[in-house]
Structures are given as structure tokens and as C-alpha cells.
Design brief:
Shape: globular
Distance between the termini: 58 Å
Largest sheet: 4 strands, mixed
Order of helices and strands: EHHHHHHEHEEHHHHHHHHH
Number of strands: 4
Number of helices: 16
Strand content: 5-15%
């Protein structure tokens, strides 16, 4: 997901990302889309690919979650004249991104990874229409949907940069391959969301520097004195870079501000609500623990977790080659709720409950495993 800010009397959730889509999560996201299809609410969508490569990737998709090209094909005739959802608009956004080295690298990454990109609308990608948050995009791991209801092409372009950063977390950093307990899962979500915000801002700055054009992302005048926190992040970063601060140092500052921003925008409510992605059922049905054995038996170490998070905090797209950010952070900082945005009693109560439940699930799995491997008792014992 990406940043939230007031708009048209609503709070704004710009994106939802793949990181929530561990076992059971992605299927629920798709099931919502399927229910929308059954209700006939797909009229306002036109699925479009940024390139022939994306189209081919979508057509070749074989996973359970069908790509948007197939899912939205019935909408094309009804929406083909609507610029908001048109191929023309997506082509224009692609052309803008290609004006910068970073944009070209992002598009090449998407093509290399066979990530399909399409236009969509709130009826499909908004997982909770009642929360008064506008969803700008959603990352389904193998494809990304962008909300064509946005007025600004620049906002869509930056949302795409944000979502591709999440794909980068998954495909390059491979943070999703870690076996995480509830605490580290929550911390990872915070750090990666802040990084996606920060990278979005960084991309916007590089675009303006390369093109000399001013991005249409809202009123920047006195942005930090108003209720536009994302624009404030962008303006602070611009001032730091224009003032001569080295990019890695400026990005570190931006990341730390981004973590506080994620906290302020109530993303912890989402993160805390997704800690149990199915492992809680192991308490009642221990055999289900085989699906979570890695987390129970060999959870990621602090050292390995921190190494992944340091890779996330990379200014560019090549960890270990491009400059790293947060280099002054200690390992303990990456494991701290205070350092990664802050906490309150409610958060810690939720985390403590999840950790106790996780321990109970692990105990049930351990007992089940022991019963399967123990030698049979001798006769008459």
C-alpha cells in the first residue's frame, strides 16, 4: 500500500501491496474481484498492458489468480472511448517514465519479471469501500492494477513506481521468502511501506530533475503546514537534494520520515490485523502446521532479518551496488518499534496476543510432530 492523505473529503489509501498476500491473503484479494465480476460491476474497467511484453506475460499467466486481461475483457467495448481507462493514457504514462533513467530501469524490471500492468477502478481494487479511503492501486504480485479514477497522470505514474518498488521487495530483495514470526512480520511491513513511499518520492524528484517539469501531485505551497503529508515528504526531500545533501543521506532522512508517516496514516491497523495468515488454525488442527513449519521450526534470525531490511533500504535498484540508506542504524534499530515509527499500548497489546497465539500454535505443531516421530511403546507398557 502507499500513502494516505485527505482528498475530496476522504482519506486516501493509494495502494495495497503484495506483502499482505501470504497464504490465504492473495486468494481473498482475488475472490473479492471475482465477487465484483459476478455482480456485474466491472463495467468501468479496461485492462491494458504497458507493452507487448506485459500482454504476453498476462496471457501466459498460469497461477490461480488470473491476470486482468482475461478478467476484464468484457469491459473493453464499453470503455474504449474513456481516456481515464484508455491505452492512450497508459502509453502516455509509459512515455513519461521513459524520460528518466530510473523510470526506464523500472519498466525494464517489470518486463523482465513478467509483471502485467493494467488500468482499473475502485470497484475492483478497493478491499474496503466503507473505510472512506481512496485506493490508487493494488499489487497482486504478478500484476498491478492502477486506478484510472485519478485525475493526474503524474499521480498514476508515481503510484506505479511505488507498486513496482513493492515488486522489487518481493523479486529482488526476496523479503517475502523469510519465515517470519508476528513481530518481524509487522516490522517488515512498516519498513517496506516506508521504503515504497520514499522510493516514490525519490522517483518523482529524479523525474523533475531529468525533465525540468513540475509533477502534478497537488498544491506544494506551504505543504508542510497543511494536511498534505505526502507532498510535505516530497518537498522536504527536494529541499535536501537541491541543498546539496548527498542522495543516500537524503534518502535515509526520507525513510525515517516515511516510517513516521506510515505510522501516522494508521497503517499499523492493517499490519496488526494480518499477523495470523492461517497459522492460528494449527492450535485446533495441528496437522495444518506443515504449511507453517518453516516459521515454527526455523524462524528467521535477527541477523538475517536485519540484512534483508538493510537491502530494502537501498536508494536504487541494486542492493550492495547502489548506495544504501540508514547506514547509521544499528541492528537493534531495525528491530525496534520505537525506531520504525513509534508504538502505543494498543499496538503492543495486539502484538503480545499474536505472539502468545503463535507460541500456542508452535507448541501444538511440536507435539504433533513428536507424536509422529516417537517410537511405538513396547507391548504391555
Amino acid at each position: 500500500m502507499a500513502h494516505q492523505e485527505p482528498r475530496r473529503g476522504k482519506r486516501v489509501r493509494e495502494t495495497e501491496d503484495f506483502a499482505k498476500q501470504e497464504p490465504g491473503k492473495l486468494s481473498r484479494s482475488w475472490n473479492k474481484s471475482a465477487r465484483v465480476l459476478k455482480k456485474g460491476l466491472m463495467t468501468g474497467i479496461l485492462a491494458l498492458s504497458l507493452s507487448a511484453g506485459f500482454t504476453a506475460a498476462a496471457q501466459a499467466e498460469t497461477r490461480d489468480n488470473r491476470p486482468p486481461v482475461a478478467a476484464m475483457s468484457k469491459a473493453e467495448k464499453q470503455q474504449k472511448k474513456d481516456y481515464a481507462f484508455s491505452q492512450e493514457r497508459l502509453d502516455k504514462i509509459e512515455a513519461r517514465m521513459k524520460q528518466t533513467e530510473l523510470g526506464r530501469a523500472l519498466l525494464q524490471f517489470a518486463e523482465d519479471q513478467n509483471i502485467a500492468i493494467s488500468m482499473s477502478n475502485s470497484k475492483v481494487i478497493d478491499s474496503d469501500p466503507k473505510d472512506r479511503l481512496f485506493t490508487k492501486g493494488r499489487n497482486y504480485s504478478t500484476y498491478i492494477r492502477l486506478n484510472g479514477e485519478m485525475k493526474s497522470d503524474d499521480e498514476i505514474m508515481m503510484t506505479l513506481a511505488h507498486e513496482l518498488r513493492h515488486s522489487w521487495h518481493e523479486r529482488v530483495v526476496k523479503s517475502g521468502e523469510m519465515d517470519l514470526d508476528p513481530r518481524r512480520h509487522w516490522l517488515m511491513r512498516r519498513i517496506q511501506e516506508a521504503d515504497a513511499f520514499s522510493f516514490e518520492v525519490h522517483f518523482g524528484y529524479e523525474y523533475e530533475k531529468a525533465t525540468g517539469k513540475r509533477l502534478d501531485i497537488g498544491d506544494r505551497y506551504n505543504a508542510c503546514n497543511g494536511n498534505t503529508p505526502f507532498i510535505c515528504l516530497a518537498e522536504e526531500y527536494r529541499r535536501a537534494r537541491d541543498g546539496g545533501k548527498p542522495a543516500p543521506e537524503a534518502y535515509s532522512q526520507l525513510l525515517e520520515r516515511g516510517m513516521r508517516h506510515v505510522r501516522a496514516m494508521k497503517y499499523d491497523k492493517t499490519f496488526g490485523g494480518e499477523l495470523d495468515d492461517g497459522w492460528g488454525r494449527v492450535i485446533a488442527t495441528p496437522s495444518l502446521g506443515s504449511s507453517f513449519a518453516g516459521r515454527f521450526d526455523h524462524p528467521v534470525t535477527d541477523a538475517d532479518f536485519v540484512a534483508k531490511m538493510r537491502a530494502v533500504a537501498t536508494e536504487g535498484l541494486v542492493p550492495g551496488v547502489d548506495p544504501g540508506a540508514l547506514t547509521k542504524w544499528t541492528d537493534a534499530d531495525f528491530l525496534s518499534f520505537d525506531k520504525t515509527g513509534g508504538k502505543d499500548k494498543g499496538d503492543m497489546k495486539k502484538l503480545t496476543a499474536a505472539e502468545k497465539k503463535f507460541a500456542a500454535a508452535k507448541a501444538a505443531w511440536d507435539k504433533y510432530e513428536a507424536s509422529r516421530t516417537s517410537p511405538p511403546s513396547p507391548p504391555g507398557a
